[in-house]
């Protein structure tokens, strides 16, 4: 495994149109590449308002749609690994919240469909029901950069500790969660969930949010962050559009496994986690 990897987390603002959102993303991808990033990550639902009434209108096939084609093109041009945040995917009669990954030749390396749909009701604070329009994904998705294996989830997925633990079983040393948390649960749980998933599984964890816009129907929390396998926050954005770029020390993964060997001390004779698909 190489000694380090330069990662860019792009906390992007929403734009009035899908085409403007794509253009804004492409401009920031270029800036991140200029600053040396090899892995670039976009936020959840970056090309569409986060709204059940808007998902269908903005949905497209992946990788045939305009968003996918634009991201594939810039990934190939710049020779980068690009996690396309997430955006609404249409497949037959079904809609999904999907995170695609494009490689340095513009190839679709994998795509992950949000498995746990965001159905939450805190009266007066936040009520949302993704399952009213979206279908759940049915499988995990991973890709590799050199020998670094990376797993994908989307937002609500990170509340389910078993999911990240399954990725750990698959050998992932990093998880990426494009995430549009709400401003009520964000201050309570955002850092806690990112740090917990990182510490429990001794891996890097990236949570990449849209920028906050108080004028939208659903207001994203912001505060994009990256945690290391010790559970430390390496970098954190604020609420506005912002680019975070950092070098992650990949040797930390093996260090912590040696020094705090909890992964090898699990009592499989008493309990186990089983991936069914």
From TrEMBL:
One of its GO terms (cellular component) is mitochondrion. One of its GO terms (molecular function) is omega-amidase activity. GO terms for biological process: asparagine metabolic process; glutamine metabolic process; oxaloacetate metabolic process. It catalyses: 2-oxosuccinamate + H2O = oxaloacetate + NH4(+); 2-oxoglutaramate + H2O = 2-oxoglutarate + NH4(+). CDD domains: nit. It holds the Pfam family CN_hydrolase. Keywords: Hydrolase. Residues 5-250 form the CN hydrolase domain. Its EC number is 3.5.1.3. This is omega-amidase. It comes from Anopheles aquasalis.
């Amino acid at each position: 495994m190489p000694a380090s990897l330069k990662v860019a987390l792009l906390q992007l603002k929403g734009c009035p149109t899908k085409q403007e959102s794509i253009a804004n993303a492409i401009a920031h991808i270029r800036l991140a590449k200029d600053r040396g990033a090899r892995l670039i990550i976009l936020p959840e639902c970056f090309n569409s308002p986060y709204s059940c009434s808007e998902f269908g209108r903005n949905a497209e096939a992946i990788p045939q749609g305009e968003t996918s084609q634009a991201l594939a093109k810039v990934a190939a041009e710049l020779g980068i690994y690009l996690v396309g945040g997430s955006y609404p995917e249409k497949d037959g009669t079904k809609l999904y919240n999907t995170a695609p990954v494009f490689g340095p030749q513009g190839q679709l390396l994998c795509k992950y469909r949000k498995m746990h749909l965001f159905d939450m009701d805190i009266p007066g604070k936040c009520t949302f029901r993704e399952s009213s329009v979206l279908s759940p994904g049915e499988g995990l998705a991973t890709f590799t950069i050199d020998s670094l294996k990376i797993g994908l989830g989307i937002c609500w997925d990170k509340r389910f500790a078993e999911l990240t633990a399954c990725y750990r079983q698959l050998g992932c040393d990093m998880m990426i969660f494009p995430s549009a948390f709400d401003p009520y649960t964000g201050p309570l749980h955002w850092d806690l969930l990112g740090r917990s998933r990182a510490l429990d599984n001794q891996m890097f964890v990236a949570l990449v949010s849209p920028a906050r816009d108080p004028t939208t129907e659903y207001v994203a929390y912001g505060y994009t962050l990256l945690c290391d396998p010790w559970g430390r926050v390496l970098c954190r954005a604020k609420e506005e559009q912002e680019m975070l770029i950092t070098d992650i020390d990949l040797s930390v993964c093996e260090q912590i496994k040696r020094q705090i060997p909890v992964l090898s001390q699990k009592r499989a004779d008493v309990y186990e986690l089983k991936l069914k698909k």
